Amino acid sequence: MAKSNPGTGMLCFLLGVTVGGVLALLFAPASGEETREKLRQTAEDGREYVETKRKEFRRKAEELSEKGKEVRRRAEDAIGKGRKAVNDLKDKGSDLVSHVI
Predict the structure, then answer these.
(1) For residues 17 and 46, is the Cβ–Cβ distance under 8 A?
(2) How far apart are CA 58 and CA 82, in angstroms?
(3) Rg for the chain, CA atoms, rounded
(4) pTM (whole model) above 0.70
(5) 3-state class of 98 per DSSP?
(6) 82 pLDDT band (50/70/90 cuts)?
(7) In sequence order, which residues have a C-beta less than 8 Å from that of residue 20 and are 6 or more positions away?
(8) Average pLDDT in the 4-24 region?
(9) Cβ 50 vs Cβ 10: under 8 Å
């Protein structure tokens, strides 16, 4: 499954808002005040959408950051255990060689 690009969705939304606003102006028989109110509402809806997406993006970024920290911690633990195992084997090998010689 392909992952969607958040920027593409935002661009499509903003394009839709713009096209919708222009079409509303062209085809809706409304007074100037009504038209301005519709445009204000459309702009407000757009701002709310962008703010919601910004918060979602920030939350996901924070989650990924925490997951990254956990992966790093686990990797550092595994590396430490691996180094200890290698050193233990090296010591055992040295002990065996000293007993043989």
Answers:
(1) yes
(2) 36
(3) 30
(4) no
(5) helix
(6) very high
(7) 42
(8) 76
(9) yes
